[in-house]
Amino acid sequence: MALIRRLLINLEVPSQEALVRELTQAGFAVTQSSISRDLADIGVEKVRGRYVLRAATEAQVLGIHSARPAGPNLLVLRTSVGAAQVVAYKLDQLGLNEIVGTVAGDDTIFVATTGTEDQFLIMKALGLAEATRKGR
């Protein structure tokens, strides 16, 4: 899949057939159906007639799976098992003023905030789909 990513970054790939040709020339035995699955797995979309990598959100880069407010001053983030402490450290390094502090367990991070508006701003900065305010 790394080669597919490189090809999409470096070449204009207008179709799955063109990608199959490029990969075959590189020595890989692939089919259009396997390419279709690979494109879906790595988050590729067709934009203006060519395949491109979908931009990752900050949450995806950090490994955050979900965020949920838990009261006016607490945001709960979920990660993969065993990743919460590393993700909390990276989150602290982002320097978001809305974060007062973090406490990490195994797959859960508690983020202390000064209020619900800060929770919304943190989720928005992370690119989380749940970043919506009630009534808006």
Describe the structure.
Helices cover 40% and strands 21% of the residues. By secondary structure, it is α+β, with helices and mostly antiparallel strands. It has two domains: 2-53, Winged helix-like DNA-binding domain superfamily/Winged helix DNA-binding domain (Arc Repressor Mutant, subunit A, Orthogonal Bundle), CATH 1.10.10; 58-126, Gyrase A, domain 2 (2-Layer Sandwich), CATH 3.30.1360. Strands 3-4-6-5 form a four-stranded antiparallel sheet. It has a two-stranded antiparallel ribbon with strand order 1-2. A hairpin with a 3-residue loop joins strand 5 (101-104) and strand 6. The model has no long low-confidence stretch (mean pLDDT 88).
- By secondary-structure content and strand pairing, the structural class works out as alpha+beta
Note the main sheet: 4 strands, antiparallel
- What order do the strands of the largest sheet run in, or round the barrel if closed? 3-4-6-5
Shape annotation: elongated
> What is the string of SSEs from the N terminus onward?
HHHEEHEEHEEH
Kindly report how far apart the N and C termini lie. Answer: 40 Å
Stretches where pLDDT falls below 50 for ≥5 residues? none
Q: Calculate Rg over CA atoms.
A: 19 Å
Structural domains: how many: 2
